């Protein structure tokens, strides 16, 4: 038998729905896992990149078969990389197109922290990422960005 100040653990549905002892509501996560509230900043950024790639890929799927996309936190300190393969803002790379080689496909790398720091809000970040993806795909295909996506605008404006 348990002493008076201890109670047994009840695992019924009624007990799970009860409020905590101070009346502040049930304890637990604030939102289900599938709700964006529980996304980390890097997951949110990755989803924005995926949306932008899917938008462009809908029209250029066959041509983009040999092109990969990646996200890195910050650009590497690599002074030997050619500058013409980068999209820069104030000397800080925002994205880079790495050519195919050594059995590896060509790759577009977007740098999360510089892009997030440059964006005013989430909508601005989405627009910048979309425009950078369009510009890098255009560079890869040897086309004008307006040809790749008629809604393109220069991301550094």
Structure description:
The chain is of the alpha+beta class. The protein has a domain at 40-148: 2-Layer Sandwich (Zincin-like), CATH 3.30.2010. It is 36% helix and 15% strand. The chain is built from five helices and four strands, in the order H-H-E-E-E-E-H-H-H. A four-stranded mixed beta sheet has the order 1-4-3-2. A hairpin with a 2-residue loop joins strand 2 (86-89) and strand 3 (92-98). Helix 2 (41-60) crosses helix 4 (122-141). The protein is elongated.
Task: Please describe the topology of this protein.
Layout: H1 13-17, H2 41-60, E1 67-72, E2 86-89, E3 92-98, E4 106-111, H3 112-118, H4 122-141, H5 145-148
Helix pairs in contact: 2-4
Helix % is 25-40%
Uncertain parts: 5-13
Count of runs of 4 or more consecutive helical residues: 5
Give the topology string: H per helix, E per strand. HHEEEEHHH
- CATH architecture label of the domain at 40-148: 2-Layer Sandwich
Radius of gyration: 24 Å
What is the tally of beta strands? 4
Based on secondary structure, the structural category is alpha+beta
- Average pLDDT confidence is 78
Spatial order of strands in the largest sheet? 1-4-3-2
- CATH fold category name of the domain at 40-148: Zincin-like
Tertiary shape: elongated
Main features:
157 residues; alpha+beta; 5 helices
TL;DR of this structure?
This protein is of the alpha+beta class and 157 residues long.
